[in-house]
Design goal:
The protein is of the alpha+beta class. The protein has one helix spanning about 5-65, and strands spanning about 65-70, 80-90, 95-100, 105-115, 115-120, 120-125, 130-135, 140-145. The chain has one domain (about 5-145). The strands form two sheets. Strands 1-7-8-5 form a four-stranded mixed β-sheet, with helices on one face. Strands 4-3-2-6 form a four-stranded antiparallel β-sheet. The protein starts with a helix and ends with a strand. The model has no long low-confidence stretch (mean pLDDT about 85).
């Protein structure tokens, strides 16, 4: 007949294993919630860049002036380094964003700009203020993203 102490020991070990499993499950859910919030914040920033870029293109095309604006951007989103980039090809222009390094990080989402825009530039979170500069070249507008520099 097994002793009473052995039964208590096995019960204690089983309770420990179950509590570890529950702890890991809760940590996984918390991580997923944090990740969702970080993606939403990056999406909001990308949409703000696309909206400002569209507005700058409209002003530039209407007046022919060069327009420069700064956008307040967070240094980090959550505890993660992020990047935002403007890209274009012959038919469209868009805003990309992601976490990690700009050229190796995972692309999360695209927000589109007007079709007649040549767009370029990358901004890494935490490196100065994000700036957009738009110039009309006659054949179309050029939108450039970078860090804000005085002058």
């Amino acid at each position: 007949m097994p002793s009473q102490a052995t039964n208590y020991f096995y019960t204690l070990v089983a309770m420990g294993v179950v509590s570890l499993m529950l702890t890991n499950a809760f940590e996984g859910q918390v991580g997923a919630l944090e990740s969702t919030g970080e993606k939403k914040e990056l999406r909001r920033l990308m949409e703000a860049v696309a909206a400002e870029g569209t507005e700058l293109v409209s002003i530039t095309e209407a007046t022919g002036a060069t327009v420069k604006v700064s956008i307040e951007a967070p240094t980090q989103i959550g505890n993660r380094q992020y990047w935002v980039r403007l890209e274009s090809d012959g038919s469209k222009a868009w805003v990309e964003g992601g976490f990690g390094e700009p050229w190796t990080g995972t692309l999360l989402r695209e927000a589109y700009l007007p079709w007649n825009v040549s767009a370029s530039g990358t901004y890494r979170g935490g490196y100065g203020t994000l700036s957009l500069n738009c110039t009309d070249l006659g054949s179309g507008s050029v939108l450039v993203m970078g860090r804000w520099e005085d002058g």
